[in-house]
Design brief:
The protein has six helices and six strands. It has one domain (about 20-175): 2-Layer Sandwich (Alpha-Beta Plaits). The chain is globular and about 55 Å long. Strands 1, 2, 3, 4, 5 and 6 form a six-stranded antiparallel beta sheet that branches. The protein has helices at about 20-30, 60-65, 85-90, 90-105, 135-145, 170-175; strands at about 45, 75-85, 110-120, 125-135, 155, 160-165. It is of the alpha+beta class. The two termini are about 15 Å apart. About 30% of the residues lie in helices and about 20% in strands. The longest helix is centred in the middle third of the chain and has 15 residues, at about 90-105.
């Protein structure tokens, strides 16, 4: 269930094949509900292990990032993410150092799970990030802390942000007027 005026609900769809997503969309649009739907936003990405993780930064936790297991938490926070061109001009070592601090800070908030998907060449942004938590206040605190990191200097875009409350489709539709 969405909380933005331009998005009533979000479908977080995960598949290993683009054709499955296309077929699901076609089937959804062929329903009675499909006549009323618009898609104001759509983000596509591919999950993979972070290129910035080295062996010193919680490797066992980071290995899990290549696989997304949704629905373990009540709240979902999703947004597209793009770095500046200057970020990509930094040396690999500088980017690694900067992201090492960013990742370590993220681990100080274990109640917030990060799911990162890579969108390079697939969509308009470079990443789609989806955070999950049972406590929105922890996510707010994490984002506030991340704004103070060096990596934040190289953020070009990290909006719009979608805050969602997990729910099954029928109850969510009933909340929207059935």
């Amino acid at each position: 269930m969405g909380t933005r005026p331009d998005c009533d609900f979000l479908l977080w769809r995960i598949s290993y094949e683009l054709e499955v997503l296309q077929e699901m969309t076609a089937r959804l649009l062929a329903t009675g509900l499909g006549n009323w739907l618009t898609t104001p936003y759509s983000y596509l990405g591919q999950a993979k292990r972070s290129v910035y993780v080295d062996e010193t930064i919680h490797p066992s936790q980071e290995e899990k990032r290549g696989i997304i297991h949704p629905g373990e938490y009540k709240y979902l926070f999703v947004y597209p993410f793009t770095k500046t061109r200057q970020w990509f001009q930094l040396s690999k070592e500088d980017r690694q150092r900067i992201m090492g601090g960013h990742i370590r800070l993220g681990h100080e908030y274990p109640s917030v799970k990060l799911n990162t998907s890579y969108s390079f060449g697939l969509d308009d942004q470079e990443w789609v990030v989806a955070f999950e938590s049972n406590r929105p206040s922890d996510f707010v605190d994490l984002v506030m802390a991340l704004r103070e990191t060096e990596s934040s200097l190289y953020t070009l875009r990290d909006t719009p942000i979608f805050t969602c409350i997990r729910g099954e489709i029928r109850p969510v539709l009933n909340l929207l007027g059935g």
